[in-house]
Amino acid sequence: MKENNYQSSERMDYNQHEKGNITLLGNKAYADDPMIFPPICIKCGSSQVEEKKFQKKLTYCPSWVYLLFFISILVLLIVYYLVRKQVDVHYYLCPGCWDAHKTKRTINAVMWLGFLGLLISAIALESGELGILSLAAFIGGLVTAVLASTPLRVDDYDKPQFLVKGFKEDFVNAFKRRSA
Ligand SMILES: [Zn+2]
């Protein structure tokens, strides 16, 4: 039996559910590296995931490291690469959620292209209006980049386990049904 470090540190009124190497704690999940999810869509909880399997490397870095910004960017970068911990996450999306994700990525790419096109035109034509439009496209690019990114984030690391957050209620319920 592996040790469950998070049992002692978190409140015990959570229902815990296990499947494979993953234990669900509330709407967060913890496991060792690599974290391998069962074939359930991490967005909507559907089990019709076919072959839509994904792999992503998530990074955890303790928040005090970012305070080094006030000393030096270089020191921050060096310490970041020394202390960061990475976990390979294997997960599934159903075809519907995968299509929605692809649409968001396409909109994001269009935003960036629009930003570049408008910026170049604004400079070439010395147009203030086009400059404002390019700024709007830039903000649109940032917003859609967030929407198009994987929602999963490492919340905490307690050697050797990673605590990952960003799961939707539908996934949590499907996971509980599967491990029941
Ligand atoms: Zn889905």
Describe this protein's structure.
With 180 residues, the chain is α+β, with helices and mostly antiparallel strands. It has 2 domains: 1-42 and 53-92 and 151-180, no CATH class; 95-150. The chain is 44% helix and 26% strand. It is built from 5 helices and 8 strands; from the N terminus they run αβββββαβααββα. The chain has helices at residues 5-9, 73-83, 95-125, 128-148, 169-179; strands spanning 16-19, 22-25, 28-31, 35-41, 53-60, 85-92, 153-158, 161-165. Strands 1-2-3-8-7 form a 5-stranded antiparallel sheet, covered by helices on one side. A 3-stranded mixed sheet has the order 4-6-5, with helices on one face. A hairpin with a 2-residue loop joins strand 1 and strand 2 (22-25). Helix 3 (95-125) runs antiparallel to helix 4 (128-148). The longest helix has 31 residues, at 95-125. The structure holds zinc ion (ZN).
Query: First CA to last CA: what distance?
Result: 19 Å
What's the β-strand tally? 8
Rounded average pLDDT: 87
Overall geometry: flat
Q: Percentage of helical residues?
A: 40-55%
Uncertain spans: 8-14
Bound molecules: zinc ion
Strand content: 25-35%
Q: From N to C, what is the helix and strand string?
A: HEEEEEHEHHEEH
**Overall tally of structural domains:** 2
The strand order across the widest sheet is 1-2-3-8-7
Counting H and I runs of at least 4 residues, what is the number of helices? 5
Please give the radius of gyration in angstroms: 21 Å
The largest β sheet comes out as: 5 strands, antiparallel
Quickly give the structural class.
alpha+beta
